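Model it.
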Amino acid sequence: MIRALRTDSTHEDFKTLVKALDADLAIRDGDQTIFYSQFNKIDLIKNAIVIYEDDKPAACGAIKAYEEHCMEVKRMYTIPEFRGRGLASAVITELEKWAAELGNTKLVLETGMNQPEAISLYKKSGYKIIPNYGQYIGIKNSVCFEKPIA
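Modeled.
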């Protein structure tokens, strides 16, 4: 059984999943993780999702304010043993719903070139590649996306 929990960054299961994400990114991106880590602090995230499969924390994601009527998707991760089951799609769908409920009309996000699964997920979910924004301008490893939400 799959269940989504809306929480914040203080939730222990969310923090555990983010630690696994950071370990995965350290392998994929090596020294580049030092640059990215400054933008991935979770201490102020008020909107986080944890997806449970059979009561086991399996996937997560979060949104945070970016600009007026726009939030940024952050900290998306699915534990390897739970991949291929649609859990990441469930996270992104829940985040989109929550962002819309909060009065937003658009989501933006950044992912890395070394994360082909993430790039594929976002394209499949209706996100369009945009020029790199904010702190990602000029960063060759970054791929930025946006999606209007209702």
